[in-house]
């Protein structure tokens, strides 16, 4: 299945009602659409995956499997596409959901953190200050980790408020994304936090090269 998925990853156009007989980890990655609008956009659009009922369920199961039995208090999703997977994870785990927002959208007291996103643009991220108490164990969710700048800013916000994203032993929470690329920033996150993603090892080099 991995070889077939590798050969047809971007060209395959699966029916949104079709479910393959063998549903190995990552089968749903072929549902994603490649970038056709140029370098100012992300290189893949996973939103078609979210339209597939079984694809979304299996994606969520793969993301949460490493955290089974872990003491998670809350799920936080990163603006904006992380809201989709984050809210789904919170509902599955029966936990609360916290939205970590781009600056300027919250009308309450916030904590801000500047960062550089995957495209090299300077931005600011915010979180409300009354949602995270010291020691609260947070599962951070985003759609994708490319350079790691956005996820690292979210980690800093949570930890500045006393929340716990992960600890060496045991790991009380962690980080989940469809893909965590093997970039410098991605490696920094993998080395320090418990992580879950959906890309099989055989396909990881293609994702890292944006192929």
What order do the helices and strands follow?
HEEHHEHEEEEEHEEHEH
- Strand order across the biggest sheet? 5-6-4-3-7-9-11
Number of helices: 7
Task: Tell me the strand percentage band.
Answer: 15-25%
* Percent of residues in helices: 25-40%
Q: What structural class do the secondary elements suggest? A: alpha/beta
Unreliable segments of 5+ consecutive residues:
none
Give the overall form.
globular
Query: What is the CA-atom radius of gyration, in angstroms?
Result: 17 Å
Number-wise, the strands total 11
Query: What distance lies between the first and last C-alpha atoms, to the nearest angstrom?
Result: 18 Å
State the assembly state of the protein chains.
single chain
Q: Residue-averaged pLDDT, rounded?
A: 91
Characterize the largest beta sheet: strand count, sense, and whether it forms a barrel: 7 strands, mixed
